[in-house]
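Let us work through a complete example step by step.
Step 1: write down the sequence.
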Amino acid sequence: MKLILLSILLTLSFSCKDKAENINQNIQSLPNIIWLVAEDQSPDWFPMYGDSIQSLPNLESLSHDGVVFTNAVAPVPVCAPARSAIITGMYPTTLGTHNMRTYNAYAKGQNEISIGIPSYSPLVPDGVKMFTEYLRINGYYTSNGPKEDYNFEKSEAAWSDSSKEHHWRNRESGQPFFSVFNFSVCHESQVWARTNDTLYVNPEEIKVPPYFPDTDVVRHDMAVNYSNLKRLDNQIGKILNQLKSDGLYENSYIFFYGDHGGPFPRYKRALFDTGLKVPMVIKFPANKGAGTVDDRMFSFIDLAPTVLSLAGIEPPRVIQGVAQFGAFETKNKPKVTFHSSDRFDAVYDRLRAVRSSRFKYIKNFNTNLSRALPIAYREQMGIMKELRSLDSANQLTEIASTWMQPDKPNEEFYDLEKDPKELHNLSKVPEYKDSIDYYRDILNQWIQETKDLGEVEEKVLLHNWLVDGKQPKLNGLQLQEKDNSIKLFHSKADATIVWRKLKDSVWNVYYEPLSKDISFEAKAERIGYHHSDVIIWQ
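Step 2: predict the structure and record it as C-alpha cells.
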C-alpha cells in the first residue's frame, strides 16, 4: 500500500528541514475531491440523460464540464446497504450489511423494525476499513455531512469532521481535502412531505412510464419529485459557486451521483434498472473529457478504490471494487455488475442479480412473495396508495399490474438494449437459453466467491457476531513508553488506533509514536466492535 505521507515521515535520509519541505510539497500536490450525493434518484429525470421537462442549470453546467456516465449502478437499491459499499469498496453481502437496516444510529441503539432484531454493527471481514482513513493518513482533510447511515457504527478514524457544519474551508491552509455533501431534499420521504409545496413543473407535461397508471395522483407525485430536483440543483449550485470563489473548481475532481435509484415504487428497493441505475457525472481537473459520455460499468464498490487511486494510494487488496481512474487504474474494466436485495425493515425477500450493458439476470429466492412488498414506510406515498387501490379494483393495465402480482417467477431475464424498461421477462424464451445459463453461472460463482451472507439467517449471523446479544468490545490497547515517545499498539492486526489531545474534539489516526510531552487520550476501534477502553496520558 502506498502511503505517501507515512513513508515520508519515516524516511531518515533527509534533514528535518528537507523533510518538512518535502511533506508540504507532496501534500499540496494532492488533488482535492468533492462528492455531491443526491438521495433516491434515477437518471430518467435529468437533462444530461435526455429529459426535457425542466432545466437544472447547475448540474447541466457540471455535466458540460465533466463526463456523464451511463452505466453507474448501486449494488443494493436502498440507502444504508448501498452506503456501506460506497465507504468500504465492498459488497454488502460480504460485509453483512445487506439488510436494511442493521445499525441505526438515529434510534439510539434501537432498530426501527419489530422482528426481534436489535441495532447492530456487522463484524466485517479482516482488513475492512472506511476508505477515508487512508486519505487522512496521507494528509487529507476529510469531511462529510450531514448524513452517514453506513449500516454499521462509523469509525472515528474516517472523518476529520462529519457534521452539518462540515466544510473544506475548515481545513488547514493548503491541506488537500475530500468532502462529501449529501442532499436529502430529493429523498423518498420528500415526495409526501412536500406534496403541498410549490410545483416547478406542470404535471400534465410529465411522461408517465407504462408501469404506472396515468392518473392525477401519479402525475402529482412525479411533479413533486421533479420540483425537488430543482431544489437539489439550487443547493448544488451553492457548493459549486463556493468552489469557484475559492479558486478550487477548475482543478478539483467533482463527483455528482445518486445513492441508488428513484424514490417511487418499482424504483427504490427493486433490482430493475429503475432501482439500480444512478446519475453520475465526474468533472476532472482542467475539465478533461468535458462534455463526453462514458458507458463503462461503474459500480459503487469502485468509488472507494477510485478515490484512493486518484490520491495516489494503492487500494488495499481486501477491497472488492477496482480503481476506474488514477495511478492504480485497473487495466481490466468490469464487464458485469452484481446486485442484491434482502430485508427491508421488517420484510425479508432475497434476490440477486447480475447485469451487463446488454442483459440482466435476476434470481428470486422467495417466489411466494410479491414484488410490491408491504413496506410501511413506502405505503405513505400517494403513488403506492394509488397502485394498491387500482389493483384491488382490477383497474391496472397488464404492465402496471405485473409488479403488483402476489408472487414472482424463479428467474427473470431482460434484454436491456431492446427492453430498457424491463417489461418483458425472457426467462422462458428458448432462444435466450444459452445466455440465461451463462449469466446464471456467473451469478452463482459470485455468490460463492464473495461468501454471500444472505444465505445465512440474520439471527444466526447475530449469534455468530454478538456476545450475549451485544457488540463485542475491542479490548487490548497497550501503551509503551520509550525514550521521549509513546508507542501505541493493539494485538489485532487490523485494529485502528485513534488519539486526540485532551480537550480536543477531533480524533487523529495514529501511525507513528507520539511525544511524551503531549497530553492525549487514545482508543482502538474496528468495524463490528465497540471501541476499547480509552487510555489517557498526561
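Step 3: interpret the result. The longest strand covers residues 347-355.
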